[in-house]
Please model this.
Amino acid sequence: MILIKNIGELVGIVPAGVLRKQGDEMAETGILKDAWLAIEDGKIAGFGPMGTEPAADKVTDAEGGMVMPAFCDSHTHIVYAGSRDGEFLDKINGLSYEEIAARGGGILNSSDLLHETSEDELYEQSMARVREMMAKGSGAIEIKSGYGLNPADELKMLRVIRRIKESVPALVRITFLGAHAVGRGYTHEEYVQAMADMMPQAAEYADFVDVFCDEGFFTVKDTSRLLEAGAACGLRPKIHANELAVSGGVQVGVKYGALSVDHLERTGDAEIEALRGSATMPTMLPGSSFFLGIPFGRAKEFIGAGLGIALASDYNPGSSPSGDMRFVMALGCIRMRLTPVQALNAVTLNSAYAIGLSDITGSITPGKRADLLLTHPGWTLTRLPYLYQTPFLRTVFLGGRALE
Ligand code: NIG
Ligand code: FE
Model:
């Protein structure tokens, strides 16, 4: 047994069986001051106030530091090749995301780079990002395909994601996003057909199916067709919706039982209505709002309407080149006016829910994996987003083991 003693604040305590937080519950989390926490077999064995701690083989003295659940990053595109520095300069010079894409940049640029890169090289480049994310506190990571844009290269991406999953201590969930953009050499119709046809092969790797349901990319009709093909192979949807326009992506996602609908920068009351009473987690990606200079999601209104919110990084080379979940949390507080507790729930329990993992990680709950962050002394939950660039992390525990 490993014992962490003298924890200044143990934050993120949630009773067993609570898989997500919605509405007013978003403002609640259990906090125990001057606490201990025990780890056994990679799981949280128990916790309590100092003075009641059990004997242990190994003791870590937190010296008053905070312990909280590791971040869950439920939306990333971290398997990509090369870089898109040139487009960054175009963006600085005033081109929008859509204008860059229309010039053959954007997703198609990444697809060309990926095609030319060997599978081993793609793995190495992507692993560097995964290591960075784990070192910054992410313990569960969703990774999408979507830069292959033809069956052979989509499968290449899915193999690389599976190899990452098998080689890291973080939990990895895999999403097939063949419908990210129309691949070169296809008509729109042909491409949707090709992605529907390869669904059984993709399902050998993937947990989820995603579609970029937005203006200029894929329609609600395309999305329905692909989600039906995915459902036939046991893939649950997670949808890119309402980033560039009010796309109908939220409604079609909810209709097909999506686990999450993501982005949501442009939503009206109809989207909030569609989500009410559903099992779908609205997921906002403030890093892409920040980087692209587009609106932030209306998180407070969603919560006011009784909904939950998850926040994720969207780490990708075009719209959010960062997987720093502490910064995502800070943007949630600073730009979306979430309280630190609401933001914590959004980057831990609710984002774990958005990838179907909130029964095993995402909170301080006995029996869950010991995916934990131990901070330097003096840190509190409020300081994390407030002093948003000061180094705070002392140790990341994934499955009960300290990350080297
Ligand atoms: O989530 N919106 C679509 N896809 C990504 C961007 C991908 C890229 O530009 O490479 C996103 O923002
Ligand atoms: Fe995305």
Q: What stands out?
A: Residues 75, 77, 240, 314, 316 surround fe (iii) ion (ligand 2) (CB under 6 Å). The chain has two domains: 2-69+363-402, 72-353. Residues 2-69+363-402 form a domain with the Urease, subunit C; domain 1 fold (CATH 2.30.40.10). The chain has a mean pLDDT of 97.
